Amino acid sequence: MFSPARRYGIAGAALAFWALTACGSSTGGGDDPTTAPTTTQAAAKDKGPQCVGEAPADGVHVLRGGGFRLPGGGGVQYAAASADGTSRTATLRDGAGYGSGQQQWTVKPGSRVTVSGHAYTVRQVCSYRVVLEPRDAKDKAALAAAPESMEFAGGAADNALCFTTNRAVLAAASKSFPAKGQPLSLLDNGGVKQLPTGPSLTVSYVDTAAGSAGLGANCAGVAVAVYKDVRVGDTVEFAGVLFKVSGFTEQAVRLTRTSE
Q1: How confident is the model at residue 155, as a pLDDT?
Q2: Distance from C-alpha of 188 to C-alpha of 73, rounded to nearest angstrom
């Protein structure tokens, strides 16, 4: 019988996503999601609001705890969030994966950031994502470019599938999930859901006693999402699709799709 409070780490080097260091050059590297904490302490409740600002249809979605490779070899991470009940800010870190000496900055909707010489405007800050809009038409076109293949190969070769605003790629990923309103179960204890366009989804731990769990996603060698201590009712996003956490068992996290 499994213990309700056990935790399983996602394999890979630990990411210090919550130990923070304003804007500079990018490493563009990637790591696997962090190993789960060993305590069963309940997570502090986010005061909200859930989102501030409006997300453009072709915006870059940087997911909580994860990184996104940007045109020109740069990258950005959504390292931490803060909300006081009326406003919301996010801490962004330079580089798609954690590295020592990286710079970071605190942003809100309307903030402008420059990563490896490329300029972006923050359009939306949510508990589960930050949405950026390229200020240069060339960067916007590069992000929306169609990949050479819709089949993932593994590693950096999948950048055009994993870090894109291309609608065909996002539609293909969307079709691999249940329809809106339908459930999705992600298995604990090493279970992996692999999407046909590259992202792999994992559960880092389930703590039924504390009522929390950890979820992660990897793509092209980058931890693209690390959702720590999610609870029932929380929103998470994978590959452009939104889900509500709807329940836990000792063996799985249950999600319900909330977007089209």
Answers
A1: 82
A2: 34
